[in-house]
Design a protein that fits this description.
Structural class: alpha/beta
Radius of gyration: 17 Å
Helix content: 25-40%
Shape: globular
CATH class of the largest domain: Alpha Beta
Largest sheet: 5 strands, parallel
CATH architecture of the largest domain: 3-Layer(aba) Sandwich
Number of strands: 8
Oligomer: single chain
Strand order of the largest sheet: 2-1-6-7-8
Order of helices and strands: HHEHEEEEHHEHEHEH
CATH topology of the largest domain: Rossmann fold
């Protein structure tokens, strides 16, 4: 795991915005430039960060769409996640399903709804461009930060099944316990800050305005390089 010292690199304790976070993250990833990597972002907030990384590494840029599958009585409580690569995959939190008395079969309609939304978002953001080839490549998954880590973990598990040569998770900020858990899914983790006090990703950004669909479409159209 690599990173930069928290206090010395950012005296304010916060990134100015996602673009600055992406530029700092890119510096910590330069050792991968000669591996011909591809950069994948978790939309929407991860895309501005990933765009800076892709530009610095001269790497192509794409997205991985992940949709949380919420419990029927509490949509914000994620019991799983649907990941859309070349086909949809569902990653379940089986312990939580059991604790709540739920089954995969009971969640079928919610899975279908999230798959429809994932396909809509992917078509909107990627347009007619083909998906990047993952097999045998160095793949860097980027987000603007981790909180619970369920979305990133689901994406990483799906990406591992696509057989990359090397899978790297790159994030500006994450709580240590979440990072340790998610890091088990990858070959390398690059995280710039691991503050022991953590309530939300946004507290580590001076500007954390919501990234719009239009911004995502524009950044993906510009691409990174490669």
């Amino acid at each position: 795991m690599t990173g930069i010292p928290f206090e010395s690199s950012l005296p304010s304790g916060r990134f100015r915005d996602r673009q600055q976070a992406g530029r700092l993250l890119a510096k910590a990833l330069l050792h991968l430039k000669n591996t011909s990597p591809i950069v994948l972002a978790l939309p929407r907030g991860g895309v501005p960060v990933a765009a800076e990384v892709a530009r610095a590494l001269n790497a192509p840029l794409d997205i991985v769409v992940v949709r949380k599958i919420g419990a029927p009585f509490q949509k914000e409580l994620g019991v799983g996640a649907l990941v859309l690569l070349d086909r949809p995959e569902v990653v379940w939190n089986h312990a939580l399903l059991h604790e709540l008395g739920l089954t995969e079969a009971r969640m079928h309609s919610e899975v279908e709804e999230q798959e429809r939304e994932a396909r809509r978002r992917l078509a909107l953001c990627r347009g007619t461009r083909p998906a990047l080839e993952i097999k045998g490549r160095t793949v860097i998954l980027v987000d603007d930060g981790l909180a619970t880590g369920i979305t990133a973990q689901a994406a990483l598990q799906a990406l591992q099944r696509a057989l990359p040569a090397r899978l790297v998770l790159a994030i500006p900020v994450a709580p240590p316990d979440t990072l340790a858990r998610v890091a088990e899914e990858v070959d390398e983790t690059v995280c710039l800050m691991q503050p022991p006090w953590f309530s939300a990703v946004g507290q580590f950004y001076a500007n954390f305005e919501q990234t719009t669909d239009d911004e995502v479409v524009t950044l993906l159209a510009l691409g990174g390089g490669g």
